[in-house]
């Protein structure tokens, strides 16, 4: 085989490979859209409400201001200000798509521990990876 034959075979293989990948991605995209439609229809059927009305992007503020929960529900020993409670309530409402009246907060408190759970798990994962690397004699 000459250089030209190798090149043409390589280009043909590349085109076929990329074509297969993009076809599979298009099929996946169509499947996800169909699945999303089916799930939305099932949720609408289950709740009896129009599910599309409740969907809002996370950063969009609803036209009517969300009411903060009554601050007397928070225990006096907590040092969380009403502004922080309102911010937490607004973020939960934006995430779930519900109004503040649908929630009843009995207590808002900090999670125990000095670091968030995701940070703790990430640190443990890095440590475990390094230990495995050292056990293999510093070979990947």
TrEMBL record:
GO molecular function annotations of the record: sodium ion transmembrane transporter activity
The keyword Membrane belongs to this UniProt entry's keyword annotation: yes
Cellular compartments annotated: Cell membrane
Region Disordered, residue ranges: 53-73
Annotated keywords: Cell membrane, Membrane, Transmembrane, Transmembrane helix
Transmembrane segments: 12-35
Highest taxon listed in the record's lineage: Bacteria
GO annotation (BP), single: sodium ion export across plasma membrane
Cellular component terms per the entry's GO annotation: plasma membrane
Protein name: Uncharacterized protein
Organism: Formimonas warabiya
Lineage of the species this protein comes from: Bacteria, Bacillati, Bacillota, Clostridia, Eubacteriales
